[in-house]
Amino acid sequence: MNQAQACTIDMKKIIIAIDGFSSTGKSTLAKQIARALGYVYVDTGAMYRAVTYYAMQNGFIDADHFDQEALITALPEVQLTFQFNADLGFAEMYLNGVNVETEIRTLEVSGFVSKIAEVSAVRAKLVEQQQQMGEGKGIVMDGRDIGTVVFPQAELKVFMTASPETRAQRRYDELRGKGQTVAYEDVLKNVQERDYIDTHRADSPLVKAADAIEIDNSHLTREEQFEKVMDLVNHITG
Predict the structure, then answer these.
(1) CA distance 84 to 80
(2) Rounded distance, CA 37 to CA 43, Å?
(3) 39 near 136, Cβ under 8 Å?
(4) pLDDT tens over the chain, length 238 residues
(5) Residue-level pLDDT at 7
(6) What is the 3-state secondary structure (H, E, C) of the chain?
(7) Residue among 84, 110, 107, 117 at smallest CA distance from 180
(8) β pairing state of 98-99 and 90-95
(9) How many Å apart are CA 144 and CA 153, to the nearest integer?
(10) DSSP states of 176-196 as a string?
């Protein structure tokens, strides 16, 4: 089934939660599924990256320190919105009215985002917003705790994984493609460090939900993983 065919099917609306490790292509897959179904796509990782970027811009976090209390105090000033870009075909992240889609995708932001995501007050603020977004269903959301915390009642939960080396290579290629000067070894180290922090944090660690379907896409093309998930959607909604 191609995406155009999927759009023509009359299906009940559901919540699709896509969790998994960093650089497994969760966002790419979620965008494909949302576009095919005519659903709303929410990139929760972008939300955490935007808060991270805000913390960096305001001197709350750097390589030598992290002032959690200052960030928590400033959270009411952090306004996050998604605005649809018709040319790109998906919504971009806006921080306090400014498009930060490019700024939040750097390796520097990646280096701090897991630490920001450990802060319970940050998670509480963003989870509340995410749950509000899904009240009407017909939504595809990707992140680290969507199927376990944000939408434990989601009709379809997918858990994405791949080897750290495969994920680092994908991330390296992506960053190089955007003109960023990075070393593969640094990207691999970042992936491994994020894996450890994400799976060991006290608040909402990255775990596979008991009823999630795991997909290892180390050797899958984007189209192959898309077909796998669309088959699951059709099984639930058809």
Answers:
(1) 13
(2) 16
(3) no
(4) 454 444 444 468 999 999 999 999 999 999 999 999 989 899 999 999 999 999 999 999 999 999 999 999 999 999 999 888 888 877 899 999 999 999 999 999 999 999 999 999 999 999 999 999 999 999 999 999 999 999 999 999 999 999 999 999 999 999 999 899 999 999 999 999 999 999 998 888 999 999 999 999 999 999 999 999 999 999 998 7
(5) 46
(6) CCHHHHHCCCCCCCEEEEEECCCCCHHHHHHHHHHHHCCEEEEHHHHHHHHHHHHHHCCCECCCCECHHHHHHHHHHCCEEEEEECCCCEEEEEECCEECCCHHHCHHHHHHHHHHHCCHHHHHHHHHHHHHHCCCCCEEEEECCHHHHHCCCCCEEEEEECCHHHHHHHHHHHHHHCCCCCCHHHHHHHHHHHHHHHHHCCCCCCCCCCCCEEEECCCCCHHHHHHHHHHHHHHHHC
(7) 107
(8) antiparallel
(9) 16
(10) HHTT----HHHHHHHHHHHHH
Give the 3-state secondary structure of residue 90: strand
SS3 214: strand
Q: Taking the model in full, what pTM does it have?
A: 0.80
Residue 132 has phi, psi (to 5 degrees) of -65, -40
- Residue 12's pLDDT is 86
